[in-house]
Amino acid sequence: MAFNHLPAGVHDALVPLSVTPVTHSVPMAKNHRSDRSPAEPVSRPEPGTVLGRLASGPSRAARITHTEHLPPRAGRHAVWPDRIRPEVVAAVQAAGIEHPWAHQARAAEHALDGDSVVVATGTASGKSLAYLVPVLSTLLDGSEAPNGRGATALYLAPTKALAADQCRSVKELSQPLGASVRAAVYDGDTPFEEREWIRQYATYVLTNPDMLHRGILPSHPRWSSFLRALKYVVIDECHTYRGVFGSHVAQVLRRLRRLCARYGASPVFLLASATAAEPSVAARRLTGLPVVEVADDASPRGELVFALWEPPLTELEGEKGAPVRRTATAEAADLLTDLTVQGMRSIAFVRSRRGAELISVIAQERLGEVDRSLAGRVAAYRGGYLPEERRALERALHSGELLGLAATNALELGVDISGLDAVVIAGYPGTRASLWQQAGRAGRSGQGALAVLVARDDPLDTFLVHHPEALFDQPVESTVLDPDNPYVLAPHLCAAAAELPLTDEDLKLFGPACEELLPQLEAAKLLRRRTKAWHWTRRERAADLTDIRGAGGRPVQVVEAGTGRLLGTVDAEAAHTTVHEGAVHLHQGRTYLVRSLDLEDSVALVEQASPPYSTVARDTTSISVLETDVEVPWGDGRLCYGSVEVTNQVVSFLRRRLITGEVLGESKLDLPPRTLRTRAVWWTVTEDQLDAARINPEILGGSLHAAEHASIGLLPLFATCDRWDIGGVSVPLHPDTLLPTVFVYDGHPGGAGFAERAFHTAREWLTATREAIASCECDAGCPSCIQSPKCGNGNDPLHKRGAVRLLTVLLRGAEAGSR
Fold first, then answer.
1. Has the keyword Nucleotide-binding been applied to this entry (predicted)?
2. Hey, which of 117, 275, 578, 759 would disulfide with 110, CB 3.0 to 4.6 Å?
3. Cα–Cα distances in angstroms (integers) from residue 667 to residues 655, 726, 745, in the given order
4. Share of the chain above pLDDT 70, in %
5. DSSP 405-434
6. Residue 808 pLDDT > 50, yes or no?
7. Contact status, residue 151 vs residue 229, Cβ threshold 8 Å
8. Mean pLDDT of the chain
9. pLDDT-based confidence at residue 509 (cuts at 50, 70, 90)
């Protein structure tokens, strides 16, 4: 096994646990998949008891900065609408669900009335049943129609794992209904010999937006009988459709609606999300239709104990001598190990594929020292695995063969993993919505559950574990998406024209930006106007013009050099930073070194190795202002929002010692620059403001740079984004503004709405940024406040106190400007 000589620090927190478990009996909930057999009282340790074991010992106890107790809640029953077929009600009752919760009955009523509806209730509240019951009833009605196939329904999930899980659920629930309901998954993993049967005979097709975009819509004549009979479109976990991905999906759904109308269908949209602010507004923006909101959660909930956990400072020094905390990866591996030793079924969520692999490997190594049989009961789960690997892991998790899993957010969504006791979240996942999604994976059988958020050495994580009100007293974020983004809309207009020539009437569906874009597409010889319609002119597939997940090109194949075996893939946009020459690549517990990266052929050749370090890419960035859309005075300074062009180049990579994060060295790289046109927010300060902040030329660059880093770190608290979705540049004298300037920009072509949100919440955002820097316990700056893990300048220069003074003066100007 790789990492067979891990640093001693990996083993320092495992203490043999001999505490006698304190148990209590909790009746299982009566309204979700895990309770389809008669419920028995289940004896489990209370969440507080489990947390006490994890925190045993003075060094561990000090790491908990806050514990939130969410009390249990009783449920409220209702009755199904009388229009639901009695066979469907009987099937639901046979599954152990005697009566629906009130929100399920209400959502079903709207669906049967022909209203598009979004069910926005908590995790494990039975949202699946809320849309399945009216869908199954309608499919059963349709099976009796004289025209043969009858009614159909389409289900969209953001991940393959969720679609596969939902297909199992549908088949189990609809088994008493016989052949009237024929459910099947249609995605990239579906064998070709099954695809024709699905097109011709399936009545409930489960897929993802990617397959709808690339496979179903371009081949709509082959799907004509299915689309003609389409009654419902189910959009699960709809809050995940945000930013550029959400904007693409919004246009894919408009293309679907257009083709359905061509075949005489007008499907009702049923959306579900456990975590969405203003759900009806977000759903309307996504679908382009009016949507009714059902958000009053009537389901019961077991107790949830939610702990905030801050790793301790180590004796090590990072860049510029800054103090270094123990990594969230190492802490999460410790906690997953200890939970597994206790027999608790757990998931550790980690933000990166590499982190998931590393946590799994460390936990396996340490469990092997305690009990060899336990080592094989922990694994990693992430994107980039081959389909058969993913399915095997999902089966092992469902069966209980696996006790612990280190996973990326590929398992964050509604995959029903019954019986989980605890969730460890290694680093704030970027939004409160994702945080509650991940925490909600545990306790889905009605029992009490434990969730632990382990802070990374990062400004936002540090702020949150010391400001729990920002997590527990605030609603989840509004979904940010922009279907009118020209970089998003243009390829979908081409795809729509290739599916059916675009008429003037169609343009209302795609939005007002069409009028300006169509002449540009014609000038580029992509579309041609003939009589009353626009036609696609090329021989290649128009759907291939864009990757709706914003990957920006063909995925890079990761190939083992010695054998030619395909290990997996990496998104094109991530290749420069993750599989450059010399990078460490992890796959299923094995470590590889990248020997070469061929960008032309999209292939990275790797060979197995066991280096005692990980790698982190460094880059340089420059920025120019293309157009200023909005400008407001902040005292003498200015806050602006507009279009920019960003030029980025990966120039080197650092080697960091495993677990401790200690920098071992830096190596140069020769990779081509990449240019991005996007949207940005920026602010400027004047000489008078610099004088008031006591900022001299020697510390100006470091003060701006520190404020930029910290503001990027805090922005995910105010916009529905991830730190890695945005970028920043700070310049003591920018050629376009002729003033000291800090930019924060969207990391996607055309923008993703994050910078716009930053502009509108700038006072609150930068106030939190100032507080985060000022309250950090370090002297001169550290990863918890102003150092960035992706800084291309090696976090140099940085000036912590100057950043605080600069932001204080800037915000004073903002207050004066608002009076």
1. yes
2. 117
3. 8, 25, 27
4. 89
5. EEE-GGGTSS---TT--EEEEES--SSHHH
6. yes
7. yes
8. 86
9. very high
pLDDT bracket for residue 734 (50, 70, 90): very high
What pTM value is reported for the model? Answer: 0.74
State mean pLDDT over 661-672.
Answer: 89
Cα 718-724-727 angle, rounded to 5 deg: 80
Which residues share a beta bridge with 670?
A: none
Q: Are 474 and 348 in contact (CB under 8 A)?
A: no
Question: Distance between CA atoms of 296 and 34, rounded to whole angstroms?
Answer: 23
What is the spatial distance between Cα 322 and Cα 786, in angstroms, rounded to a whole number?
11
The neighbour count for residue 37, using CB atoms within 10 Å, is: 9
Candidates 24, 730, 769; CA nearest to 467 is 769
Residue 417: per-residue pLDDT: 59
Q: What is the DSSP string of 633-673?
A: EETTEEEEEEEEEEEEEEEEEEEEETTT--EEEEEE-----
Judge contact between 453 and 307, C-beta under 8 A: yes
Q: Is the confidence at residue 205, as pLDDT, over 90?
A: yes
C-alpha of 415 from chain center:
14
Separation CA 136–CA 153 (nearest Å): 9
Identify which of 284, 409, 245 has the alpha carbon closest to the alpha carbon of residue 752.
245
Enumerate residues 6+ apart whose C-beta is below 8 A from 691.
none
State the residue for tokens 């450059």: 580
> Which tokens is 629 given?
């859309």
Residue type at position 179: A
The number of C-alpha atoms within 13 Å of 345 and in the hemisphere containing its C-beta is 20
In whole angstroms, what is the distance from residue 679 CA to residue 744 CA?
A: 9
Q: What's the average model confidence in pLDDT over 675-695?
A: 95
Question: In this structure, are residues 668 and 647 in contact, taking their beta carbons and an 8 Å threshold?
Answer: no
Sheet of strand 292-294: strand arrangement: 183-185, 204-207, 152-156, 230-235, 268-272, 117-119, 292-294
Residue 97 tokens, joined: 């669900």
697-702 mean pLDDT: 96
pLDDT at 688 over 60: yes
The CA-based angle 243-111-441, given to 5 degrees, is 50
pLDDT over 70 (residue 146): no
Q: How many other β-carbons are positioned within 10 Å of the β-carbon of residue 612? A: 13
Confirm if 345 and 423 have CB atoms less than 8 A apart.
no
- Cβ–Cβ < 8 Å for 795, 744: no
Q: What is the 3-state secondary structure (H, E, C) of 330-344?
A: HHHHHHHHHHHHCCC
CA angle 602, 603, 606 (to 5 degrees): 155
The pLDDT tens digits for 304-333 are 999 999 999 888 776 667 777 899 999 999
Q: Is 570 helix (H, G, I), strand (E, B) or coil?
A: strand
pLDDT for 438 beyond 90: no
The fraction of the chain above a pLDDT of 90, given in percent, is 55
Q: What is the DSSP letter of 73?
A: B
User: Which of 789-804 are b and which e, b meaning 16 or more Cβ less than 10 Å from the residue's Cβ?
Assistant: bebbeebebbbbbbbb
Residue pointed to by tokens 């067979």: 4
Strands (DSSP E) along 448-506, which ranges? 449-454, 502-503
The number of angstroms, rounded, from the C-alpha of 284 to the middle of its chain's C-alpha atoms is 21
* Contact between 791 and 750 (Cβ < 8 Å): no
Tokens standing for 455?
């802070």
For residue 567, give every residue at least 6 positions away whose Cβ sits within 8 Å of its Cβ, in sequence order, or none.
558, 559, 560, 587, 592, 606
Residue 627 burial class via C-beta count within 10 angstroms: exposed 0-12, middle 13-18, buried 19 and up = exposed
Q: Supply the pLDDT for residue 302.
A: 82
